[in-house]
Amino acid sequence: MTETALRLPAEWEPQSAVLIAWPHADTDWADRLGEVEETYIALAAAITRFQPLIVCVADDDVQAYARARLSSARVDMERVRFVEIAYDDTWLRDSGPITLRGRDGFTLLDFRFTGWGGKFDASRDDLLVEGLHQAGIFFNSTRQAIDLALEGGAIDTDGAGTLLSTWQCLHERHPQASREELSAKLAQWLHQDRVLWLDHGYLEGDDTDAHIDTLARFAAPDAIVFQGCDDPTDSHYAELQAMAAELAALRTRDGQPYRLFPLPWAEPIIDGGASDGRRLAASYANFLIVNGAVLMPVYGDPADARAQAVMAQAFPQHEIVPVPCRPLIWQNGSLHCITMQLPAGVAA
């Protein structure tokens, strides 16, 4: 990668904190709030084993409640900081800051957040980065507003100038733009010099239009972990097999094939509360890398243990920590979707 003043770090690089937003009765979690709170508590406990956690809360009452729940679960509260701010929902991977590291500080990229192409109201979430910056939780940083719809879950980087994304998602957000135009915009704003596109891969129950963080992720500059499907009778089989072939055809910067780590396929999980019995998107690729560990979603499925073994192979220097995430997929996301890591040095 050409040396530039700004760089988008890989997720495995040192972090100062992870950012989440606490679910409450005025978010879409209201109908199953008790269930999802248990996932947030487990996630907070796992994160604070390794690094600080910043928790967005809607008001004083939500903060007091979240503090009590976390304290009673014996979460290390010395590593928890609360910040009061308005938000529509809790998917901070997509509404939170994408942070560039510079030689002399940080730039918080504030892309437009449109509720995944206008599917949901996102007026408060679109102001989140600006509000967090004004709240003073970031050190030595400037905010850069960008008039382009982009969610953090739609991109993944190797930290050395290569970006991975899906054409379906970005084309859905910007139907008038060509692949060349979008590649140039992403390279410009994110300071990348290669954009690798996948044309295949999707999950039923996903309303992001195929975010890359549900499908395929860098584990190292020469390694990719991806969601496989080995069941020919499953509706995902053809698409995920085609995606696997695309990944096998990709090449690293020095022309070598990537080391590929296919994740096992969970049994179908159906939303019993939905009249149409809709299928939920149980992806193991929606993991979060923190300092010294990989937090991976598990769903109470026999494939959980096999997925953990694959992750241990892909991340041999990290502890693999399972986090129960079945409640999250009811709202069409998982562990990575509700978190945003902050690079070392940026979080106060």
Automatic annotation (TrEMBL):
Q: Which InterPro entries match?
A: Peptidyl-Arg-deiminase_porph
Q: Does the keyword Hydrolase apply?
A: yes
Q: Which SUPFAM superfamilies match?
A: Pentein (SSF55909)
Keyword list, A-Z: Hydrolase
| Presence of the UniProt keyword Hydrolase in the record | yes
Instruction: Name the Pfam families for this protein.
Output: PAD_porph
Q: Highest taxon of the source?
A: Bacteria
Q: What is the name attached to this protein's record?
A: Agmatine/peptidylarginine deiminase
Species source reads Lysobacter koreensis
